[in-house]
Amino acid sequence: MDPPKSFKSTSTIQSGPGAADQEFFIKEFEEIPRRQFVSLNSIEDNISTVKFNLENPNLDWQKRIEAMQVFRCILIDLADIDLIVNGLKDLENSFQLSLKDLRSKVVREACITTAYTSVRLQNRCEKFIETLLPLLFNLTQNSAKIMSTSAAVAIRFIIQNTHSSRFIPIIHHFKFKIKRNTKILL
């Protein structure tokens, strides 16, 4: 799937080793092991498994990354958009935990998956995104470059794809908290 033209940007949030940019996200969106979902029940079961894996901090971090990749597979297929949108409510806490994780790979994958959710579901995921947006803004100030740039890129995808008046107070609140040297290109 070709990304929409609005994503084919040559600008980056920050460049250099350890930084994420839009091109990296676009490449990672669908570059995952594919799965076949034969029925709506299998999609529901996989969403439940994703939720369980993401909420279990004792689980190996690689399993949590795989869970987010499974969720992106579900988004790629979009067999039943209402089922997926309804499942987002159950995943809010799971993604919040992933964005708060101490492992940069888990956080990066959560940012990629959040951005891809915004791309695929657009305004249908506004409530889900609303719960994650404050965490993403907080991450832009993280000292780990991969975490901060991943959050900044995810925010950019969200602003480009999911439009909601509910985001304005969140953006306004964090506008004053973000360090001046963080380069979020809105």
Describe, in short, the structure shown.
The protein has 186 residues and is mainly alpha-helical. It has eight helices and no strands.
**Main CATH class:** Mainly Alpha
Please provide the count of β strands: 0
Shape: globular
Q: Report mean pLDDT, rounded to a whole number.
A: 84
Question: What's the topology here?
Answer:
Elements: H1 22-30, H2 40-55, H3 61-77, H4 81-99, H5 104-121, H6 126-139, H7 145-161, H8 167-175
Helix pairs in contact: 2-3, 2-4, 3-5, 4-5, 4-6, 5-7, 6-7, 6-8
What would you say this structure looks like, in words?
This protein is mostly helical and 186 residues long. It has one domain: Leucine-rich Repeat Variant, CATH 1.25.10. The protein contains eight helices and no strands. Helix 3 runs parallel beside helix 5. The longest helix has 19 residues. The radius of gyration is 15 Å and the shape is globular. The chain starts with 21 loop residues before the first helix and ends in an 11-residue tail after the last helix.
Features:
about 190 residues, mainly alpha, Leucine-rich Repeat Variant, disordered N terminus
